[in-house]
Design the sequence.
């Protein structure tokens, strides 16, 4: 006697879910992103933003990350520092006040892909003199079937000088 069609459907769904869970488990969690203990030194004047490259994916970076955001944290001796993360598509920079010279496309990283040749840049601006110590950024991303938020790159120390 043949099983009823409803039982076949339920059995197929259970088999499909089991296969998906097994595939997810076998692929493992995303591996750590490159980090460094070094700090990039930078300075700028009050009211003038400086752009600091904190993570660049070189040619050896073979992964494609689907970014859902970039988290930036800093400790400052003044609370009047603005930090804005950007995705530098197809370029890289160290420290500059003119990012367009080194970066053909400066984008909001949310919803973008990140791969070889791309970089993460933090725009730092202050309205009063002070110093900001920026931690390595944390990339929130999806890679294959896994989601993660992992530290990447290096931190920075930005001195904001009087005009």
Sequence:
């Amino acid at each position: 006697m043949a099983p009823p069609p409803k039982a076949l459907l339920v059995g197929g769904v259970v088999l499909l879910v089991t296969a998906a869970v097994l595939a997810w488990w076998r692929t493992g969690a995303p591996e750590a992103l490159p980090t460094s203990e070094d700090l990039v030194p930078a300075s700028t004047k009050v009211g003038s933003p400086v752009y600091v490259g904190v993570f660049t994916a070189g040619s050896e970076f073979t992964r494609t990350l689907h970014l859902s955001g970039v988290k930036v944290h800093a400790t400052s001796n003044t609370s009047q520092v603005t930090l804005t993360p950007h995705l530098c598509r197809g370029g890289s920079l160290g420290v500059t006040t003119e990012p367009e010279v080194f970066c053909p496309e400066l984008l909001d990283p949310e919803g973008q892909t990140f791969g070889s040749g791309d970089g993460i840049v933090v725009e730092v601006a202050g309205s009063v003199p002070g110093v900001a110590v920026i931690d390595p950024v944390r990339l929130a991303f999806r890679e294959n079937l896994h989601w993660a938020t992992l530290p990447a790159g290096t931190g920075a120390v930005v001195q904001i000088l009087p005009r």
